[in-house]
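As a point of orientation, let us examine one representative protein, giving the amino acid sequence and backbone structure tokens.
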Amino acid sequence: MTALASYSHLRSRLQLALAINAVIIAAEFIGGWILNSIGLMSDAGHNLVDQGSLFLALYAHLLTARPASESRTFGYHRAGIIAAFLNSFILLLTACGIALVGIKRLLQPIPVDGGWVMVIAAISFVANLAIALLLQHGAKDDLNIRSAFWHMLGDAWVSLGVIVSGGAILLTGLTVLDPLVSLLIVGVILRGAWPIFKESMEVLLESTPPGISTSHVAATIEAIPGVKNVHDLHIWAVEPRLIMLTSHVMIVQHHTTPELLQLIQHRITTEFGIKHMTIQLETECCDPDDIHCDLRKLAEQHHEAQTFAHHH
């Protein structure tokens, strides 16, 4: 499948997922309200958050197709990361809210009709699982789609838990099982949301991508004949599939610069899979021992320059 076809195919699946999820939300909320089931209503609230997540995922997916511009030289690839971060953060807040309501219902139980809870939760389970399967392929390489996928897959298992609790309530009459399931939902949300929240935060902080060591990259470059030192090394990701590298490389004087530069680029690409890089070759350096650039010094120098200009 071509990139354009894959993009259009994933967009259609996101739109279909939104339509299915809207039906789930309406059924669970109305059913939970009528049956006094906090399990159903909390799952409906979770699905409402997921509806927002799916909207964000779709919007970010549409943005990533836009080309780079003068004001956004990296394009809109970070839109998906921002969507994943917001989705996971909202899910974590939702987990806190559900936990509070669930604890309150544990202390003050309310009668629940287990039979209807099972019916509505079964519908939710089938629909959530269908949405997750729709997004499964796109989740492999896209953090944005992966966040939506795990939301929906988690919802499917949560709905299955509600079915089990409804059956248990029907057989035993223990309505305390309903808020216990809502606390199970909290656990599922935390397990799915936290890794995505952490990964998206690392990308937004421009941390070194997982599996890549800056010291290993520096050592690999310095092992090339003609290279004396690597400093001001930065490795980050615009999004997990787009890893960038910039570095200053001090070389032996009179060495063949074009050939050496090509060798460095080839070594970085083959050993670390980094294809977008900017390498500055130089024969002298003020701080050759600083592998990482101290941005505080640059900020202080900028501040001093502004102060000097202001006084004059």
Summary: Strands lie at 227-239, 242-251, 276-282.
